[in-house]
Amino acid sequence: EDQVTQSPEALRLQEGESSSLNCSYTVSGLRGLFWYRQDPGKGPEFLFTLYSAGEEKEKERLKATLTKKESFLHITAPKPEDSATYLCAVQARGNAGNMLTFGGGTRLMVKP
Amino acid sequence: DVKVTQSSRYLVKRTGEKVFLECVQDMDHENMFWYRQDPGLGLRLIYFSYDVKMKEKGDIPEGYSVSREKKERFSLILESASTNQTSMYLCASSLPQGGYEQYFGPGTRLTVT
Fold first, then answer.
1. What is the pLDDT of residues B43-65, one digit of tens each?
2. Which among A61, A71, A90 is positioned nearest to A24, based on CA atoms?
3. Are the beta carbons of B101 and A103 separated by less than 8 Å?
């Protein structure tokens, strides 16, 4: 059974204080690992897809990396507007319908 | 840009009522999904569809049914709403090929009293 565990559950940062969010996964053959951002009361917004170990993707202050067992979302010099819940999900090879298995999310709060 | 819309942002229904949640996507995606999201339980897949009139059960299909009569529209039906179906309901769509991301709608916050 595919599993995704995100840590920490919640993270408080001061503006400008860089940090990383972790996504550990077990999957029977990874087809893709996905990062989403979710603001309160809204649907998840797609950020990145990573396909193989060693791959990195960047967008503004966010950088996602991937190893064979985990992914990190690095946040450099965060701003209050980066406050949100960040979700990680995996898709397994041979998965009918391209279903995703989601982690529980990390709630990020950035104080000015 | 991909756009996924849901018929209501907030909905309040009474126990035993039949409830319809509608989802429309404008990107000609073959795959469509219905999730519910609850604190501490994360996102859980209810049903998905990979083509018109096709449907597959997800992890928690009990108490729900779905309908897909047109490619762009996917409906979630609660035949007889119960209080334990109070939740945030999210619709998503994606291309059929593996490795592609799902795009989500804004969500419907359903309260059953």
1. 999 999 999 989 999 999 999 99
2. A71
3. no
